[in-house]
Every structure is written in structure tokens, then in C-alpha cells.
Amino acid sequence: MAGSRWLEQARLLGRALRTTPKSPGGLLVVGTPAFEPWHMTAHLDDESRLSGVAELTPTLVRWSPPPGAPPHLSVGLARLEAARRGETLFVVAEDTAPVPLLERVNDARKTGATILALDSDDPELDALAHEALAVPETMLSFDAGQHLVSAAAGEDANAPRRGLRARLARLLDSVAGPNV
């Protein structure tokens, strides 16, 4: 990633994730029918808890929640129709966004919701988003891109900068243990 601006762009998208939702649960995370962003949602939930920023608490929006699913796993696409100003719709799509998703994203934008996207360079989705970031498949996996953006969302822009790399190193140490 040397010479790339991708880490700085990930930091900007993370800052938008941290600051655009105005209430807990107002960060709506949705994927495509083939890609459900539960992993990104879990990391954002961790970052919300660790940073003490309740507005970063995500709501996973699912295409087909199974009957009897727990409340946090049963939010369906109808929630996108209720999106309003002060809420943020974060589309995490490893594959191309289908037309029904693009229509819902467009409707949410018209009602005043902020649209953010992390994708694999989807021009139609990117055109609807206020801020979008494509994960460069030649540099890192989509999963790694999600990790970097969620770690950046947990950064406090007003705190002394330790950098995304230092934060990611601390995250890896907490998961794998310190390097001896």
C-alpha cells in the first residue's frame, strides 16, 4: 500500500461513519442479497463500544431475516424506507449493487439520509453515495478493507493522532496477542 492514498481515504470514510449518524441505531448497514455485511457490523459495534460513541452503533439491515430471528438480526429492508435526515445508510457491497438496492438507496438519499459506500468499484452505487471508497483488490482483500475502515471509524479525530497503522497494530495485538 506504499504510495497509495487508500489508508487516508479509509480514515476519511471512517470519520464519516463516526460523525454522520446523529442517534444510536441511526447507522444502517446493508449489503446485497449475496453479501450480508455482518462482519463489518460486528466490528462497528465493537468500535462503538470501545470508543464510547453510541452513534456508531450499527443496525444490520438484512434482505431476508429468518422468522424468529433475535431483534438485532431481524431488521429487514423496510427499515431503509424509513431512513431520514440524521441517519446514515452504509452500503457494504463486495459485488455489484442490484437495482432494487440502488432504488432504496436513492429513496433514502431523497429523504435526507447520508449515503456512504464501501464497495468493489461500483460506479452506480458510488454515484448515489455522498462518500464512497472502493477496495483495491490488487492491494488487499475486501475483508481487510472492512477491517481498516471499521478501525478508522473508532478513531477520535480530536485525540492526538497515533495513526491508523498504530490503531490497527493494537487491534491485531488484542486479537492475536503481542509480538514477542
Named at the architecture level, the CATH assignment is 3-Layer(aba) Sandwich
Identify the CATH class: Alpha Beta
In the CATH hierarchy, the third-tier topology is known as Rossmann fold
Order of helices and strands: HEHEHEHEHEHH
As for the number of domains, it is 1
Mean pLDDT: 88
Terminus-to-terminus distance: 25 Å
Strand content: 5-15%
Structural class: alpha/beta
State the strand order across the main sheet. Answer: 2-1-3-4-5
Kindly state the percentage of residues in helix.
Answer: 40-55%
Number of helices: 7
Low-confidence stretches: none
Count of extended strands: 5
Biggest β-sheet description: 5 strands, parallel
Molecular shape: globular
Gyration radius, to the nearest Å?
16 Å
Give a verbal description of the structure:
The protein has 180 residues and is an alpha/beta fold. It has one domain: Rossmann fold (3-Layer(aba) Sandwich), CATH 3.40.50. It is 42% helix and 13% strand. The protein has helices at 6-19, 38-51, 78-81, 99-110, 123-128, 142-153, 164-176; strands at residues 27-30, 58-61, 88-93, 114-119, 131-134. Strands 2-1-3-4-5 form a five-stranded parallel beta sheet, with helices on both faces. β4 (114-119), α5 and β5 (131-134) form a beta-alpha-beta unit. α1 packs across α6, α2 (38-51) runs parallel beside α6 (142-153) and α6 (142-153) crosses α7. The radius of gyration is 16 Å and the shape is globular. 38% of the residues are buried.
